[in-house]
Amino acid sequence: MPGFTYQIDKSDRMTIYHHGRAIKLLKAKDALKLHDRLITVPEDEQQRMMAAATGNYKRGNEKL
Fold first, then answer.
1. What is the pLDDT of residue 57?
2. Could you report the average pLDDT of every consecutive run of 10 residues in the chain (64 residues)?
3. Separation between Cα atoms, residue 60 and residue 40, nearest integer Å
4. What is the CB-side half-sphere exposure of residue 60 using CA atoms within 13 A?
5. Residues spanned by the domain of 22
């Protein structure tokens, strides 16, 4: 199971979850921008991008 997952609601807001727990809510503009980028990259890159968006880094030196 991947560490980070996300869900987009009717208002185009994105909730990012880490191991099933909601940790970040992105407003519509930022959410749609991130979603457009997420759907074009492999899953390992998606995980890194969501970690960067939430501030939850494994080593603390990842950059987007």
1. 65
2. 88 93 94 95 92 74 48
3. 24
4. 0
5. 4-54
